[in-house]
Amino acid sequence: MSINTISPQALNKLRESGQCDLIDVRTPAEYQEVHASDAVNSPLDRLAPKQVMDARNGSTDQPLYVICKSGNRAGKACEKFVAAGYENVVNVEGGTDAWASAGLPVVRGKKTISLERQVRIAAGSLVLLGALLAIFVHPYFAGLSAFVGAGLMFAGITDTCGMGMLLAKMPWNQAPSCSK
């Protein structure tokens, strides 16, 4: 299945010339930190394509533009829309990073630790804990380090990170309001 894409510059021209529906599928905390000025937050883990399309007041014939940090999660969101029968969805190339780098209008809020960085901190801490427990308590604790390593390999192979999904649901990764 091929998902249509658009550059941030081309989308900005469309946005300036009229109504343009843009959803941001990052976590609420990521969205609160920085987002394209007209983007509405609809996190990927809670994305309901039918509800999003129903909220567009019957404008399902107009394209729905989807953005995330770099384009990966937006691609997954587009696939969800297509699977639900809505094919007029477009992934914004390079995501919010490319949008901001192009100098296009963004809204900046409270700085947070990125989800990717949180995963590295948590995984590293668990590997270190497992190694220390294996040395000082019992060798079986080496299994903790092996389990985390296997999880990281699985995440790399499948492009699905269970630890990232779990961390995204933590209270510090939630924002008081998920939309504009």
Automatic annotation (TrEMBL):
User: Looking at the keywords, is Membrane present?
Assistant: yes
List the InterPro entries hit by this protein, alphabetically: Rhodanese-like_dom, Rhodanese-like_dom_sf, Thiosulfate_ST/Rhodanese-like, YgaP-like_TM
Query: Transmembrane residues, as ranges?
Result: 121-141, 147-167
- Tell me where on the tree of life, at the top rank, the source sits: Bacteria
Keywords in alphabetical order, please: Membrane, Transmembrane, Transmembrane helix
Q: What range(s) does the Rhodanese domain occupy? A: 16-108
What PANTHER family does the record point to? RHODANESE-LIKE DOMAIN-CONTAINING PROTEIN 15, CHLOROPLASTIC
The protein, known as: Inner membrane protein YgaP
* Biological source species: Bremerella alba
Q: What is the lineage of its organism?
A: Bacteria, Pseudomonadati, Planctomycetota, Planctomycetia, Pirellulales
Which gene produces this protein?
ygaP
